[in-house]
Amino acid sequence: MTVSVNSAALAGIDAVLITVETRVCAGVSYFIVGLAGEAVKESLFRVESAVTSCGFDMPRQKILISLAPAGIRKEGAVFDLPIALSVLAASGQLDSALMNDSLFTGELSLTGKLRPVKGALSVAVEARKAGIKNLILPKENANEAAMVADLAVFGFETLSEVVDFLHEPGCVKPAIVKANDIKKAEQLYSADFSEVRGQEKVKRALEVIAAGGHNGLLIGPPGTGKTMLATRLPGILPLLGLQESLETTRIYSVAGQLDGTGLVTERPFRAPHHTVSDIALVGGGPVAMPGEISLAHNGVLFMDELPEFKRKVLEVLRQPLEERQVTISRASYVVNFPANFVLLAAMNPCPCGFHGHPNRKCSCTPQAIRLYRSKISGPLLDRIDLHIGVPPADLTAKPAESSAMVRKRVIAARDMQLARAGVCNALMRNEQLRTYCALGKLELDVLNQAMVQHKLSARSYERILKMARTVADLAGAKNIGLVHLAEAIGYRA
Q1: What is the value of pTM for the model shown?
Q2: Tally of CB atoms within 10 A around 178
Q3: Are 141 and 123 in contact (CB under 8 A)?
Q4: What is the rounded CA–CA span in Å between residue 228 and residue 374?
Q5: String of b and e for 140-177 (b: at least 16 CB within 10 Å)?
Q6: Residue by residue, what is the 3-state secondary structure of the chain?
Q7: Among 53, 82, 326, 400, which residue's beta carbon has the most beta carbons within 10 A?
Q8: Per-10-residue mean pLDDT for the chain, 493 residues long?
Q9: What does the alpha-carbon distance between residue 100 and residue 96 come to, in Å, rounded to a whole number?
């Protein structure tokens, strides 16, 4: 007898429907076919123990399991539950008709307990897209998957509970989560701008970064508050919208970094150590996993001590900074991960850190300073919009405005951008740039003069226009004026 059960496999942050076909016939061996990884091949040992531990009989016959389509590689233990149910159905212990409208995913322990899996939200999205009515999975994943509308999600703790539910579907109610119940930013971010004394020019630059979605580089001596300022950037960004929250949640679900609370409501802030590898940063590995730049999607990627990162690691950022996604190509797979993040980096001006300090003497030679700064390539620097000097902090300055006050201006500027072009200023395309960043004759002459004086590239020209548009939006101006352009040139030059 042959039985088919619906399941799913992950491909990047998306899921693909997989049909688990099981046949029990004469013989005494077990086989799994269909490009199964090692963890999938081992599932029959877990299934056998789980089935017998829950009081069912494991057939002592030949069991052939096919995972279709065969051309997609399957990894992980997510097929344990559908394999166990298909074996029970194929051996006559369960009616296969009870599983026709459902999709199953979950890892089994040796005692039959269901363990959580990665990518439950992506599986739920794919199940709804395929018209499947019910999704059955481990209880720990229920809140996450229940954020998908028009899909009944049921979470269970053991294999026995799943079988009982299939016999009596009305005995358990589906999980319900209000996906639009997003917390207020004041409840999410404890780090506030009001805690930073002085540094008004740097705060203004961070406000421009937040309003336009630009990238920034903080340059200053140690102890000037670069990291302190950077950690407060998420608090002035607009709140995550529902669609952005779902996108971010899917990424964290696939990476196995959800804490079981369901929807991600905070903008991510990722700060990888400078020893991070290029694969850990952009993603990949034997099984395709999102890297730090994808985990920072819709949020901030903070790279402290930028020159200490390996040159190879820094160079892999160039393409994602332009395309806002990363394509991982390996011999066994090709996947796309989203990577729309704000890059905020920090560095010292020299190896000792005190070059240009008003009160401390630099001990570095000119050659040492050149070698230190040359660790960051020109093409990468060209993709960072704002280069911001961070002077020593004035600890006697009065407390500044709060993050909530700054956020109001940022949100007002973002609303103008979305109404005008549908995207934030940093993501404007060339035709939008020509339409919405047109300059008057005087402004154009000043910009051309700055291009020659500072020997800026064509990419710098475009980024100055985008920054000037952001500065104008913060001021509520319809057109880019000379004062807006001058501020943008100052950030770039």
Answers
A1: 0.91
A2: 10
A3: no
A4: 26
A5: bbbbbbbbbeebbbbbbebbbbbbebbeeeeeeeebeb
A6: CEEEEEEEEEECCEEEEEEEEEEEECCCCEEEECCECHHHHCHHHHHHHHHHHCCCCCCCCEEEEEEECCCCCECCCCCHHHHHHHHHHHCCCCCHHHHCCEEECCEECCCCEEECCCCHHHHHHHHHHCCCCEEEEEHHHHHHHCCCCCCEEEEECEHHHHHHHHHCHHHCCCCCCCCCCCCCHHHHCCCCHHHCCCCHHHHHHHHHHHHHCCCEEEECCCCCCHHHHHCCCHHHCCCCCHHHHHHHHHHHHHCCCCCCCCCCCCCCEECCCCCCCHHHHHEECCCCEECHHHHCCCCEEEECCHHHCCHHHHHCCHHHHHHCEEEEECCCCEEEEECCCEEEEEECCCCCCCCCCCCCCCCCCHHHHHHHHCCCCHHHHHCCCEEEECCCCCCCCCCCCCHHHHHHHHHHHHHHHHHHHCCCHHHCCHHHHHHHCCCCHHHHHHHHHHHHHHCCCHHHHHHHHHHHHHHHHHCCCCCCCHHHHHHHHHHHC
A7: 82
A8: 94 94 90 92 94 95 94 92 97 95 97 96 96 96 91 97 95 78 52 88 96 97 93 94 91 87 86 96 92 97 97 95 92 90 97 91 94 94 95 82 94 97 95 95 96 93 97 96 97 84
A9: 7
The pair of three-digit structure tokens given for residue 281, joined into one six-digit string: 């940063």
Which residue type sits at 371?
L
